[in-house]
Write a structure and sequence with these properties.
Length: 176
C-alpha cells in the first residue's frame, strides 16, 4: 500500500458496536469498575468481621453491610448498562445508520458529520491520542474523552490496511 494514499471510512454504527465500545471505554480503558468493587469488598469484609464479634446487633450490622456491599455494584453496573441502552435507542442505531465519515490522509484525519451540517474536524496525526484495535472495530481516540469508531469492513481498504495505516502514522506506541 502506498503511504500517500488516503483511506475513507463512511461509518455505519449499530447498537452492538456502540455497546461494545461503551464497555471498553468505561471498564477496560478508564477502569471505572475498580472503585465500586474495592468499596464493595471492604463492606463485605466488615460484615464478616461484625459476624465474628458475636455481639448483640452484630447480625443486623452485618446484614446491612452485606446488603450495601452487594447492592452497590449491582446498582452501579445496572445503571451503566441501562444508560448505554438508552443512548443506543436515542441515537436510533437500529437499523445501523451512517453517522460520520472518517478520511485517513497523509497529513492527518478528517471527520465529516453525516447527521448535521457542521465544519469537518481536521487533526494532524501528532494531535491524535491513541488507537485501539478490538474485535470488529478500531477505536480512534482524538482526545481522552472523544473517540471515533471505525468498524471492520466499512473502509475502502482492507481492515489490516486500515490498522497498518494508523500504525504507520501514529506509531506503535499509540496503537494497541
Amino acid at each position: 500500500m502506498s503511504s500517500d494514499r488516503s483511506i475513507t471510512i463512511p461509518v455505519r454504527l449499530d447498537e452492538k458496536t456502540f455497546r461494545r465500545f461503551a464497555r471498553f471505554d468505561m471498564f477496560t480503558l478508564r477502569k471505572k469498575w475498580i472503585r465500586p468493587v474495592i468499596f464493595s469488598l471492604i463492606l463485605i469484609a466488615f460484615a464478616f468481621i461484625a459476624l465474628l464479634t458475636r455481639k448483640a446487633q452484630s447480625g443486623m450490622i452485618a446484614a446491612v453491610l452485606l446488603a450495601v456491599g452487594i447492592g452497590l455494584p449491582v446498582v452501579y453496573f445496572g445503571t451503566f448498562f441501562s444508560q448505554v441502552n438508552m443512548q443506543a435507542l436515542q441515537q436510533k442505531l437500529k437499523p445501523p445508520r451512517r453517522v460520520y465519515t472518517v478520511t485517513l490522509r497523509e497529513e492527518g484525519i478528517r471527520v465529516e458529520n453525516n447527521q448535521r451540517k457542521e465544519d469537518p474536524l481536521e487533526m494532524e496525526w501528532t494531535a491524535v491520542r491513541q488507537a485501539f484495535r478490538r474485535k470488529g472495530c478500531v477505536y480512534l481516540y482524538v482526545t481522552a474523552a472523544k473517540a471515533f469508531l471505525l468498524p471492520d469492513g466499512q473502509a475502502d481498504a482492507a481492515d489490516g490496511e486500515v490498522w497498518d495505516y494508523l500504525t504507520a502514522h501514529l506509531g506503535s506506541e499509540k496503537c494497541k
